[in-house]
Specification:
It contains 14 helices and ten strands. With 427 residues, the chain is α+β, with helices and mostly antiparallel strands.
Length: 427
């Protein structure tokens, strides 16, 4: 018989031993494939996740509420490593023919006109999804969509403001400028494209615009028309960072521009990155330890079992040598036995590997700070990633199996064929 026939005969005849070897290979293959799938996904996710965190810093005037031209910060825009700059404007506006949400607050003022009691807080920007009140989940879009770059005369309003005035998506709402350049402001009609819910940190000054329910978001270009600005003005310029890991280096370059002496202050917005950075590092360390542990334990179990079985198969080896079979032929037979058993473990290991992947995502990353990483990894750990990782794991398993067999054979084949046959006769 050739090595393949002898290997099949042994595997089919020694069913208990084959089943024990099957269990070892099954556990080892499932564990390795789960680790490789998550490690492969983790590296892909790391770059995409960091990019989606919108890590940024904003520059505004030290004097609260003061505006400036975006071109005044041209020196900052030249720094390498910045993805883009987004203009932001915070002001107040007067509702036209609508009523602001009222409520109790600690500050009461008697110097307000009827119009001043109907103010909303207006934040103008290009992409509302990147605003910190939304990324921090203080506000959440309930209906419609976020403001996008290129929008014109679009607005997001709070669900309470919409409820009080019977407003819904695509309805119109008119605003007057609350603060404008020499009275040049004008009435602008906005289309409601999104309705949000939630509550932000409130600071009461006695105005209706202090309430979260009276917060609105508009596109930046329309805010300039509302205020009647002859030149575009911003209350803050937000610079987005290409790589969050380079934030500290970029901040040092900004500090070298001595913006404080020009009346500006810089604020970092990288809290989300700091939280997720630790999660990514911790999870990567866990996977590495888990993988090495699986490899050491699996290889150790394989070597132990194969060496014990090989000692009991000295007679078989001796007979094969007596029949003229070479050492390489016998070694190939033993390796093929491992391969044949491993083929039976393929499907169960693939299913178990995916189950382990899901379990690790649901348990190890179940805490609040790691929920974002959990969701992103779950999406990245798709079928194509799993199949590729499983194929790599199987090749890796075969290498471990063959190396284990080789290690066991080293101790046996240190003896010459004559010495092996002599040891059989002595027994």
């Amino acid at each position: 018989m050739n090595p393949i026939q002898r290997a099949w005969a042994y595997v089919s005849r020694k069913r208990l031993r084959s089943f024990i070897l099957f269990l070892i290979l099954f556990v080892l293959l499932a564990g390795i494939s789960a680790c490789l799938t998550l490690m492969k996904s983790n590296k892909t996710v790391e770059s995409n996740l960091y990019k989606s965190l919108n890590t940024s810093f904003s520059i505004k005037k030290i004097e609260n509420g003061q505006t400036f031209k975006l071109s005044d910060l041209a020196s900052v825009s030249k720094i390498k490593g910045l993805e883009n700059v987004s203009p932001e404007l915070e002001t107040v506006a007067k509702l036209k023919d609508k009523e602001a949400v009222s409520g109790e607050q600690s500050v009461e003022r008697d110097d307000l006109s009827a119009a001043d009691k109907n103010l909303v807080s207006l934040t103008a920007l290009e992409d509302s999804s990147k605003d910190v009140t939304f990324t921090s989940s203080a506000f959440n879009i309930k209906e419609g969509r976020h403001l996008q770059k290129g929008d014109s005369k679009k607005i997001l309003i709070h669900e309470e403001l919409a409820k009080k005035n019977g407003l819904s998506l695509h309805d119109k709402i008119r605003l007057d400028a609350g603060q404008s350049e020499a009275g040049k402001g004008q009435t602008v009609e906005f289309e409601i494209v999104g309705i949000f819910s939630g509550k932000k940190q409130e600071k009461f000054t006695g105005l209706s615009s202090d309430f979260s329910e009276n917060q609105v978001f508009t596109d930046y270009e329309s805010s300039q028309t509302l205020l009647g600005n002859s030149e575009p003005q911003v209350s803050a310029a937000r610079f987005y960072v290409e790589n969050p890991k380079e934030m500290e280096g970029l901040m040092k370059q900004v500090e070298n521009l001595a913006l404080e002496s020009q009346g500006y202050q810089v604020e970092k917005e990288n809290k989300a990155f700091e939280q997720i950075k630790d999660s990514v590092a911790t999870f990567q360390t866990f996977l590495t330890i888990f993988l090495y542990g699986m490899l050491i334990a699996g290889a150790g179990a394989l070597i132990l079992v194969l060496s014990l079985w090989l000692r009991e198969r000295v007679y078989e080896v001796g007979i094969l040598l007596a029949l003229g079979k070479g050492k390489s032929s016998i070694f190939l037979q033993f390796c093929l036995e491992v391969v044949l058993v491993s083929l039976g473990a393929l499907l169960p290991s693939f299913i178990a590997g995916n189950a382990i992947t899901s379990y690790l995502l649901q348990t190890v990353l179940a805490s609040g700070d790691q929920a974002t990483l959990q969701d992103t990894l779950a999406k990245a750990s798709g079928l194509s990633t799993s199949l590729l990782s499983f194929a790599e794991s199987y090749v890796f398993l075969l290498l471990i199996g063959c190396l284990s067999v080789a290690l066991c054979f080293v101790f046996l084949f240190r003896k010459s064929p004559k010495e092996i046959l002599s040891s059989i006769r002595d027994r």
